């Protein structure tokens, strides 16, 4: 009896499967199912604040029409855009708002438009996943990273020179930009901002060298730019240099807030000091980034010697060969005059300058990354930008740039490392950044923040919650 019942059911199923009405219903369900799933994703993005109401309504209307059977343009759905395209779209939006902010400030460069804080608080993190140093070193030669890095990435200087055929300069550094960490011209989407507070020095050659790697470089010299102009520039920056002066001027507290915010959304910081007293701005920022660690620059040593590659960077006269920043470097100039780190704490030391007349070599080049932040007293949170600290900015001067061992390569390598490309690539499948929607700076309207009050209360509260 069981077999007969089964035959009856099978026959009925076969009949239904050939019924045109059933076939149409099944086909329609198959067509609509992925659209409904897309609608759920769309709704969740809006609910999480990752899509403006204007965008949500536009995409939702297009999906409803498509579910109803109306033809839909491929561009009507956010799912047709790659994560990279969405990030690029958001970057273009930010640039548009920043252009408007700069326009508002043309006749009042020392007054910050109220709209600055709206843009600031809407900025997305630059990455949401952290790649460990060892993993980054091991994958530096992988296809994704080779879009930015040269083939020498992830190889020590000994491995690079092992073939005995590589041409080297007088300091035994390999000749050619192909031995730098970043490839030439590959960083076109990256912006580097130089905040120069020192009363001395020139920087034309460093700017040109970084532009050769693709960086868009913007320089704000404290003698001609205001703190507020620097703050607005940070909104679209990827890497920021802070080059210390001999004293800290009024208003720097505002920039400290902006630099700290930039750091916590993934921006890279290159902090430059030199002999006493040229480390004021950097030391104030270090106390913000590493509270309770006692990390600051001090001292006034002569320098002007050359360090050499070693298994580590903690002994006098040595730089580590096992870090991406030191790619292609066998020798590196210390700086004409130098300062050193009072403590290194959880930082990774990359170089310690030589013993000199009346002084012992001390660590003066160190970095902070995700592994360092996990060891800090401050609560760890994924997404903090990388930091490079260097106590000898005199090597940046045009007259020293091309005449000293390894300076140009070191600076280009460090700036590329500060981008944290490996973590950015690992985060590409994460949710897209939020849109500014229909808001933003108001055309033709001037609204300014009273700068004496610092930053908005909402922003201050966010900082307290970190």
Which range best describes the helical content: under 10%, 10-25%, 25-40%, 40-55%, 55-70% or over 70%? 25-40%
Reported for the largest beta sheet, the result is:
10 strands, mixed
How many β strands by DSSP?
A: 14
Structural class: alpha/beta
Strand content: 5-15%
> Any idea what the shape is?
globular
Strand order of the largest sheet: 3-2-4-5-13-12-11-8-7-9
Mean pLDDT: 86
Model regions low in confidence, pLDDT < 50 over at least 5 residues: 1-5, 437-459
Q: What count of helical segments does DSSP give? A: 17
What's the helix and strand layout?
Blueprint lengths: L1 H16 L2 H28 L5 H15 L15 H22 L7 E2 L1 H8 L10 H6 L4 H4 L10 H5 L29 E6 L7 H9 L3 E6 L5 H8 L4 E5 L8 H13 L3 E5 L7 H10 L7 E5 L4 E5 L7 E3 L10 E3 L4 E4 L6 E5 L10 E6 L1 H4 L13 E4 L7 H4 L5 H12 L2 H6 L21 E2 L7 H9 L1
Parallel strand pairs: 2-3, 2-4, 4-5, 5-13, 7-8
Antiparallel strand pairs: 1-14, 6-10, 7-9, 8-11, 11-12, 12-13
Helix pairs in contact: 2-3, 10-11, 11-12
């Amino acid at each position: 009896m069981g077999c007969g019942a089964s035959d009856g059911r099978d026959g009925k199923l076969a009949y239904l499967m050939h019924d045109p009405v059933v076939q149409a219903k099944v086909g329609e369900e198959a067509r609509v199912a992925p659209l409904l799933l897309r609608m759920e994703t769309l709704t969740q993005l809006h609910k999480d604040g990752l899509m403006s109401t204007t965008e949500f309504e536009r995409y939702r209307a297009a999906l409803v029409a498509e579910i109803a059977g109306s033809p839909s343009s491929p561009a009507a759905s956010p799912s047709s855009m790659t994560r990279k395209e969405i990030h690029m779209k958001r970057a273009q939006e930010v640039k548009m708002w920043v252009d408007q902010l700069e326009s508002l400030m043309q006749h009042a460069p020392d007054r910050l438009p109220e709209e600055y804080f709206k843009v600031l608080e809407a900025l997305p993190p630059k990455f949401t996943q952290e790649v460990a140093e060892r993993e980054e070193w091991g994958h530096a030669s992988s296809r994704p990273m080779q879009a930015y890095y040269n083939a020498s990435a992830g190889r020590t200087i000994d491995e690079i020179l092992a073939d005995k055929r590589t041409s080297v300069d007088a300091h035994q550094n390999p000749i050619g930009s192909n031995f730098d960490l970043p490839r030439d011209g590959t960083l076109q989407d990256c912006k580097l901002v130089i905040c120069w507070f020192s009363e001395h020095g020139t920087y034309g050659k460093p700017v040109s060298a970084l532009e050769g790697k693709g960086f868009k470089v913007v320089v704000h010299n404290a003698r001609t730019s205001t703190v507020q102009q620097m703050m607005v520039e940070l909104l679209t920056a990827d890497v920021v240099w802070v080059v210390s002066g001999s004293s800290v001027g009024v208003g720097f507290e505002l920039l400290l807030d902006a630099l700290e915010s930039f750091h916590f959304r993934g921006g890279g910081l290159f902090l430059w000091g030199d002999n006493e007293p040229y480390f004021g701005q950097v030391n104030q920022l270090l106390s913000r980034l590493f509270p309770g660690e006692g990390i600051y620059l001090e001292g006034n040593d002569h320098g002007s010697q050359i360090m050499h590659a070693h298994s580590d960077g903690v002994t006098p006269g040595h730089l580590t060969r096992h870090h991406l920043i030191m790619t292609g470097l066998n020798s590196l100039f210390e700086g004409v005059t130098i300062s050193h780190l009072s403590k290194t704490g959880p930082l990774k030391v990359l170089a310690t300058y030589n013993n000199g007349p009346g002084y012992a070599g001390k660590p003066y080049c160190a970095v902070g990354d995700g592994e360092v932040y996990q060891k800090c007293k401050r609560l760890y949170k994924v997404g903090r930008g990388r930091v490079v600290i260097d106590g000898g900015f005199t090597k940046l001067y045009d007259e020293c740039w091309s005449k000293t061992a390894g300076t140009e390569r070191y600076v280009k390598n460090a700036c590329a490392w500060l981008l944290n490309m490996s973590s950015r690539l690992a985060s590409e499948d994460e949710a897209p950044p939020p849109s500014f929607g229909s808001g933003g700076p108001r055309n033709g309207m001037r609204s300014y923040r009273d700068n004496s009050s610092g930053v908005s209360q909402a922003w201050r509260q966010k900082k307290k919650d970190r």
